[in-house]
Design brief:
The complex is a heterodimer of chains A (143) and B (552).
Chain A (H helix, E strand, L loop, with lengths): L5 H14 L9 H4 L4 H9 L4 H11 L4 H11 L1 H15 L3 H7 L18 H10 L14
Helix pairs in contact in A: 1-4, 3-6, 4-6, 5-6
Chain B lengths: L20 E6 L3 H12 L4 E5 L16 H5 L7 H4 L7 E6 L30 H5 L9 H14 L25 H14 L4 E2 L33 H11 L3 E4 L2 E7 L5 E7 L5 E11 L2 H11 L25 E7 L13 E5 L15 E6 L4 H4 L8 H4 L1 H8 L5 E8 L8 E9 L5 E7 L3 H20 L4 E5 L36 E3 L14 H17 L9
Parallel strand pairs in B: 1-2, 1-8, 2-5, 3-14, 8-16
Antiparallel strand pairs in B: 4-10, 6-7, 7-8, 9-12, 9-15, 10-11, 11-12, 13-14
Helix pairs in contact in B: 1-7, 1-13, 5-13, 6-12
Classes of the chains: A mainly alpha (143), B alpha/beta (552).
Chain lengths: 143, 552
């Protein structure tokens, strides 16, 4: 299902780039496709977000976009949160964005049962201090 | 009096159709599962009514790139966000923390963080030691063998010998690596001379029973797609049903029924088509968590029990202790890959678990070093930050923290307060029209002082570990997943709802085996104790079944 017309997309791109601009070495939302193909992927996964994106578009059309976003944030949290999640949700699915952040996402890393523990060297002082639990029969002293 | 005897030995003339279960369990979470496993093994006929369904790990999106996005809907921690028919809505308008729970076979263990901790010996004697709250009617030593049993059932992985507990403190499976993040935090703790220990997780590091070995995706609290986390369906219910327990899903209980003598006779439940049924039983055990059990008792009013069932003390629903979680975050220059699991915990600390009155409060907290999650989990704009601080170039800067941060989740003891309570809702109901609940919970003075002090110590430890920046979250939204205290156990019927075995004082064939029983909350995650209490209660019920009073 195609939720968004081209004139909707233009507003979405403008709003999305206020949220996520080209800055700090990171691409803008629109450059990453967060208002286009990634947004389509988001609403395919989360159809509940599409009406809220469209509500944001309707609200912001013809207005100063930054002022419109600020007003949404303060007066219509459901639309605001839905729009933000749709844009950010798509943006951080973009492989280049993940690579720029050094984020690999969930990866399978089975535990090697033969590997030596990676903490033994650090535990010695903890063990040397001995028990720290408090016995009920006393008032404040460790056993 | 008619004794409860094994199904095989029962006088069939009393129940020629076999429609009366020896035991009816309400709720198929870990407590219900543990109880069912014991009861069917003893030859008793068991029926369990569960309002949710069997779930499958395959349905979880968390191992995929879009997992974070999907976790915020179908698998959201809050039943109010999920809006599934298996859930019931919860009015949180008078609560300082949102409620987390999941209704399915396995219960809230579908979304638990798998942090596995026993209470400590002092937790059972808070009144004696610190002059607040009440002592439990049981001791750590009494519960210890049941902790060990639960740890085996749940495939707990960890390092034995933690000096924060009496010896022996053993785990059945070896610990996970603590990783870069765990080592970094441990180095900071060592610089300060503070206790830490490799994480104990209800997650098997090797294949265990029906559970797969963990592959450290780090998504545990949003649902494990590998089937590795100890969800109670795999830990208990697969075997319990194979051994003869009858588990009915999509079954919403609306009332526990009683006879003219005040004994429990079963439960009225509603199926998914809206049709009502009456399941008869000789013994009823509630395992519906600290909110659901209180709700059901309060719903079961009658002329004999005008304030709700088993509520002559007036304490049903009161002393709710949900453990709002606080977080201290440290940001580091180096990449720590802090999204790597198990998540679960890498390391934990009990350094400040016990009371030191010089701190200005009593009791303490356990800290857990947890995974940091993915980009949507830490994005400032998806919290409550302003447009200026949460988005734009500022957000790009903050997102550089991804994998560069360590988070201590602080589980501080919530002291009991009778005004913190669960009540039936006047207007809100579930999809079957059964009245839902309102949560009344305010963070108390001692709890707030404890929280603030611990946050500062946790920040100190992160600075000692090399953090270049620290920040904190006083109350993590929707962190009220520890539903405790609403039907406390005790020796005095005037000040408790059940006896030391979980049997209600007012209705001798009605039992409670879930977190409702907690007299105090401790400062650790409660699933270990919930499972141990259920095992202990079930064993006692079986041992004393010939003296068990049941309805005629």
């Amino acid at each position: 299902m195609n939720w968004f017309k081209e004139d909707d997309r233009a507003v979405i791109r403008a709003l999305a780039d206020i949220l996520i601009p080209d800055a700090e070495g990171m691409p803008s939302a629109s450059a990453a496709g967060a208002a286009d193909e990634l947004l389509d992927r988001v609403v395919q996964l989360r159809a509940d977000l599409a009406p809220r994106v469209l509500a944001a578009v309707r609200f912001a059309r013809g207005k100063d976009h930054r002022a419109a976003l600020e007003e949404l944030r303060t007066h219509d949290s459901e639309t605001w949160q839905g729009f933000c999640l749709a844009i950010a949700g798509g943006y951080y699915l973009f492989d280049d964005v993940r690579a720029l952040l050094g984020y690999t996402g969930p990866e399978r890393r089975p535990v090697d049962p033969e590997a030596a523990p990676d903490f033994t060297d650090l535990l010695a002082p903890v063990l040397a201090r001995g028990p720290i639990w408090r016995a009920p029969r006393t008032t404040g002293e460790a056993p | 009096m008619i004794a409860l005897v094994s199904h095989k030995g029962m006088n069939r003339a009393e129940d020629p159709d076999g429609t009366i279960a020896d035991v009816l369990i309400v709720g198929a979470g870990p407590a219900g599962g543990m109880a069912a496993k014991h009861l069917v093994a003893a030859g008793l006929s068991v029926v369990c009514l569960e309002q949710g369904d069997w779930e499958s790990s395959d349905r979880l999106p968390t191992g995929r790139p879009e997992g974070e996005l999907m976790a915020r809907q179908r698998w959201h921690w809050s039943p109010n966000q999920r809006e599934r028919e298996a859930d019931y809505p919860i009015d949180e308008s008078e609560s300082d923390v949102g409620i987390t729970m999941y209704n399915a076979v396995g219960g809230s263990t579908w979304l638990w963080g798998a942090h596995w901790h026993r209470l400590t010996p002092s937790d059972f004697a808070v009144r004696s030691l610190d002059g607040v709250a009440d002592d439990w009617p049981i001791t750590y030593a009494e519960l210890e063998p049941f902790y060990e049993e639960a740890e085996l059932a749940m495939g707990v992985s960890g390092l034995s010998g933690d000096p924060a507990y009496p010896a022996p403190h053993r785990h059945p499976l070896p610990p996970f690596p603590i990783g870069k993040a765990g080592r970094k935090a441990a180095e900071g703790m060592n610089r300060l001379g503070w206790h830490w220990w490799p994480g104990s997780n209800g997650i098997p590091s090797r294949p265990h029973g029906h559970l797969a070995a963990c592959v450290r995706l780090g998504v545990c609290s949003k649902g494990c797609p590998e089937g590795a986390k100890a969800v109670a369906d795999k830990a208990y219910w697969i075997d319990a049903t194979a051994s003869g327990a009858r588990l009915i899903t999509g079954a919403r209980v609306r009332e526990i029924t009683t006879d003219s003598a005040g004994l429990a006779t079963g439960a009225i439940w509603i199926d998914r088509s809206g049709e009502e049924h009456h399941q008869r039983a000789r013994v009823v055990i509630l395992c519906a968590n600290g909110i659901g059990t209180a709700r059901l008792l309060l719903l079961s009013k009658s002329a004999r029990f005008p304030d709700g069932l088993a509520n002559s003390s007036g304490l049903v629903g009161r002393n709710f202790m949900p453990h709002p979680i606080s977080v201290a975050v440290g940001v580091f220059d180096e990449q720590l890959e802090s999204w790597i699991g198990p998540g679960g915990i890498a390391i934990y600390s009990m350094q400040f678990y016990e009371t030191d009155r010089l701190r200005g409060f009593v009791r303490g907290a356990k800290w857990s070093l947890s995974t940091g999650g993915g980009p949507l989990s830490i994005h400032p704009g998806l919290g409550r930050a302003s447009l200026e601080r949460g988005w734009g170039a500022a957000a790009h800067q903050k997102m550089r923290r991804l994998g560069h941060s360590l988070s201590w989740a602080i589980c501080g003891e919530t002291l009991p307060d009778p005004e913190n309570r669960i009540t039936l809702h006047d207007e809100l109901s579930d999809c079957d029209g059964v009245p839902s609940v309102k949560v009344h919970f305010r963070v108390g003075e001692n709890d707030r002082a404890l929280r603030d002090w611990h946050i500062e110590r946790a920040r100190e430890s992160l600075v000692a570990a090399g953090a270049v920046e620290t920040l904190s979250i006083p109350v993590l939204p929707n962190s009220g997943g520890h539903m405790l205290g609403t039907a406390r156990m005790g020796n005095d019927p005037a000040t408790s709802v059940t006896d030391r075995w979980g049997r209600t004082h007012d209705v001798p064939n009605l039992y409670i085996f879930d977190g409702s029983l907690f007299v105090t909350s401790g400062g650790v995650n409660p699933t270990a104790t919930i499972c141990a209490l259920a095992a202990r209660g079930a064993r006692h019920l079986i041992a004393a079944r010939r003296d068990q009073k049941v309805a005629a």
